[in-house]
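Q: I'm teaching a short session on how sequence maps to structure, and I want students to see two examples side by side rather than one. Could you give me a first protein with its sequence written out and its structure tokens following it? Keep the formatting plain so it prints cleanly on a handout.
A: Of course. Example one:
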Amino acid sequence: MSMLKEFKAFAMRGNVIDLAVGVVIGGAFGKIVTSLVNDVIMPPIGLLAGGVDFADKKWVLKAADHTDPAHKVAEVAVNYGVFINTLIQFLIIAFAIFLVVKAINRLSRKLEEAAPPVAPPADVALLTEIRDLLKNRPPA
């Protein structure tokens, strides 16, 4: 029973819950970026490239053979168009994460600057004062 309590304590810690929320939001963000690339960005690029749909671009290494229904052979192809779409998705996600991290860094820098300096503990302040007094003392 103690292992179950230990697992419950682990699962309910803030870090694990934050990670779970991040994974869910990241998955949803990935779907949004996929739609953005496939439905918004790539059609104009394909139009500029002469009406090309990049998702359909591929190098066929071996054509499919469906002449014999008992022995169908699937097409073997390098789908470089899908790779281009995925690469653009990665760049958009990387740029979005860069912007988020940059905003967080700027915010944390402002919070550090706004925080008042922490006074040293009393014993350290006393030792500093003694040191300064000894330093200013005339030589004997």
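Q: Perfect. Now a second example for contrast.
A: Example two:
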Amino acid sequence: MTPTLRTERLLLEPYVPEDQEDFVALFQDRRVSQWMGDGPAPEAEDRALFGRIFTKVYAQDLFDVWAVRRDGRLIGHGEIKQTDVVQGYEIIYALAPDVWGSGLGRELAEAIVAYGFDSLGLTEVYATVAASNSASLAVLHRIGFEHVRDIAEDDGGTTRVLTRRRAVQPTRQE
């Protein structure tokens, strides 16, 4: 079951059915959806996606997905899951445009990465980002992600694959 995570300013917790309208509004905002998956989708598809979070993801404990809240308001979305694209675990995050530029992207990405390392025991995590999404690339670089390779997309775009490896803890000599 997806656990609740807390940062200095954010609460990451499993979605509840009452989040549907805010989830759909976030994913329908073209400033957000242009960077998510295959880009903007019809509202009906976003509603179906929200439903699958409960009927598949949570019901079958497939991976962790969070509603991201600040001061009780849903302001974003976060995930960590295994994907074939990177042959490992990928973090996914999105924030509402009205909180962009406030450092919350960094805080959110750091929280998901820390969860991957500390709770899932991962040694590395990945992110895939459109090459033109300079804001997200900057956030990931600031928190230690490094460029691994590029993927040429069918639409002519480029997706950057980045990774962050867990810092090796020195062993103590007894």
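Q: What should students look for in example two?
A: Point them to this: Strands lie at 5-6, 11-13, 64-70, 73-83, 88-95, 124-130, 146-152, 158-165. Also worth mentioning: The helical segments are 20-28, 30-33, 43-58, 104-118, 134-142.
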